[in-house]
């Protein structure tokens, strides 16, 4: 037997062994998962665990380095479609400074048209085991239904087999609508916090032991100046104990003078920090930059000033995050709500490291998620019980000034959101901002319905009316939310508020 023949046989033997090991690894080490409620099966590596507490929102299969999320969206009777979903979900790629697309193609998974996308971003130095390598497969079942397999990893995918074995294993099956395995059974509770005595007393008085509703107002002149608000309150014969103050990175830091002015006038402030710029600075990378430490100086200074203020503050960070009108929404950040949660927790830890003990954290989605896709569901943005003290509700009757909008009554907005939140949160609620437009319906009837119904929502402890106007691009009033719009509305509020003194 010559050397070449021996070498050839040896190579065949080695290749056979490798093939056997490959077969074992990619076949026998996979576990089948079945979701009868949403109608699919999928195989995943057996070193991963299933987390199904998010039920109808998503299924999570994960280990330390890799997370698989599976979403089912049905767009029947909506304005969307699977094709629109694929297009709109992936517009974050327009930011090619932070997102590097490595693969995009149309393929087929078990006969179903599939949009396959692979991308990466740079590591976030402030996130432990950051999963910055992504793959998503959007699998179209029919003109209404689409399934999404969203995979992220802390390490680069060595070969396409790392993710394609999972994706190719996905099969659509018959649904069993009567199954209970897809119910959302998460429940969020309060945890003990380290607060100063004044903050503890405040929390008890207005949230934990308060059986009645208190009212607040957003009025853009206050708390800097109280002349206008005092005159309005005189007309209403009511004093609003709670105010809203908005800030961003270009606001110049903690508003100490205004906060002291509020305290001296016996008012409490919902201090809203939105991590963006309003001075023309590019906002496209801000959330990533926070998690790389680039805003540490601002955030540490802000925390120190809050600590020195000493008095209770309701701190609302990045409200309405499930709306794409907010530059900090996951719509702009790899369609990955974990980026929002990591920013929240990072800011929280900065406050902790600076000894802040006078802050109650208010987490506040919008009542409508836009886009209305499962990956953008409001619960995907919840950072965890220890990071949240109060759950904020926000739902506006925007009226019909803009095309596609509809008039919504108070109960139409707040009964569904209240009932849904009550299923998941054992925390006190507040309506952090709300109002009704005048365009498209009867605002006076809306206000009457509000005052007759809101007292039934026992877990809502504070309601804050947004007393302002949204203007269109030509500076015409598009949404008139003011409660002092005319004498009739002032009278309705005066009459309604007399029960809340």
Automatic annotation (TrEMBL):
Q: Which UniProt keywords apply?
A: Glycosidase, Hydrolase, Membrane, Transmembrane, Transmembrane helix
- Origin species, per record, is Anaeromicrobium sediminis
Please name the GO terms of the biological process aspect recorded for this protein, alphabetically: substituted mannan metabolic process
Regions that span the bilayer? 7-26
Report the active site residues: 320 (proton donor), 433 (nucleophile)
Q: What protein name does the entry list?
A: Endoglucanase
Q: Which residues form the signal peptide?
A: none
The UniProt entry's coiled-coil ranges are none
Q: Which residues form the GH26 domain?
A: 186-493
Q: Does the keyword Transport apply?
A: no
Q: Name one Pfam family in it.
A: Glyco_hydro_26
**PANTHER family listed in its UniProt record:** GH26 DOMAIN-CONTAINING PROTEIN-RELATED, MANNAN ENDO-1,4-BETA-MANNOSIDASE E-RELATED
């Amino acid at each position: 037997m010559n050397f070449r023949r021996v070498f050839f046989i040896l190579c065949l033997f080695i290749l056979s062994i490798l093939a056997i090991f490959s077969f074992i690894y990619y076949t026998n080490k996979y576990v089948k998962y079945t979701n009868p409620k949403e109608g699919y099966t999928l195989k995943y590596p057996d070193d991963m665990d299933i987390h199904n507490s998010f039920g109808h929102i998503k299924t999570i299969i994960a280990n330390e380095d890799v997370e698989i999320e599976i979403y089912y969206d049905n767009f029947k009777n909506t304005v969307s479609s699977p094709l629109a979903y694929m297009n709109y979900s992936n517009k974050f790629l327009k930011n090619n400074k932070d997102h590097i697309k490595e693969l995009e193609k149309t393929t087929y998974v078990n006969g179903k048209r599939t949009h396959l996308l692979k991308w990466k971003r740079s590591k976030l130095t402030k996130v432990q085991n950051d999963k910055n390598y992504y793959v998503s497969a959007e699998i179209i079942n029919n003109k209404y239904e689409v399934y999404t397999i969203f995979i992220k990893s802390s390490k680069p995918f060595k070969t396409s087999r790392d993710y394609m074995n999972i994706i190719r294993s996905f099969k659509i099956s018959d649904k069993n609508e009567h199954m209970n395995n897809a119910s959302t059974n998460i429940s969020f509770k309060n945890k003990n916090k380290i607060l100063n005595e004044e903050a503890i007393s405040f929390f008890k008085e207005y949230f934990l032991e308060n059986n009645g509703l208190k009212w607040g107002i957003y009025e853009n002149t206050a708390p800097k100046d109280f002349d206008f608000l005092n005159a309005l309150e005189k007309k209403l014969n009511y004093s609003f104990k709670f105010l809203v103050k908005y800030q961003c990175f270009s606001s110049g830091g903690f508003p100490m003078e205004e906060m002291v002015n509020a305290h001296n006038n016996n008012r409490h402030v919902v201090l809203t920090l939105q991590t963006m710029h309003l001075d023309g600075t590019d906002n496209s990378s801000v959330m990533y930059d926070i998690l790389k430490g680039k805003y540490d100086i601002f955030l540490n200074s802000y925390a120190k000033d809050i600590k020195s203020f000493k008095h209770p503050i309701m701190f609302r960070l990045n409200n309405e995050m499930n709306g794409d009108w907010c530059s900090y929404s996951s719509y702009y950040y790899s369609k990955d709500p974990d980026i929002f949660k990591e920013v929240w927790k990072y800011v929280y830890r900065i406050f902790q490291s600076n000894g802040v003990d006078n802050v109650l954290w208010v987490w506040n989605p919008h009542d409508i998620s836009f886009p209305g896709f499962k990956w953008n569901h409001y619960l995907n943005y919840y950072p965890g019980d220890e990071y949240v003290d109060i759950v904020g509700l926000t739902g506006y009757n925007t009226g019909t000034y803009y095309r596609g909008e509809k008039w919504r009554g108070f109960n139409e907005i707040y009964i569904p959101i209240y009932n849904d939140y009550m299923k998941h949160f054992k925390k006190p609620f507040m309506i952090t901002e709300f109002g009704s437009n005048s365009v498209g319906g009867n605002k006076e009837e809306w206000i009457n319905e509000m005052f007759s119904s809101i007292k039934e929502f026992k877990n809502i402890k504070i309601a804050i009316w947004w007393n302002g106007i949204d203007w269109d691009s030509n500076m015409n009033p598009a949404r008139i939310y003011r409660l002092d719009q005319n004498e009739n509305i002032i009278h309705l509020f005066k009459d309604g508020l007399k029960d809340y003194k």
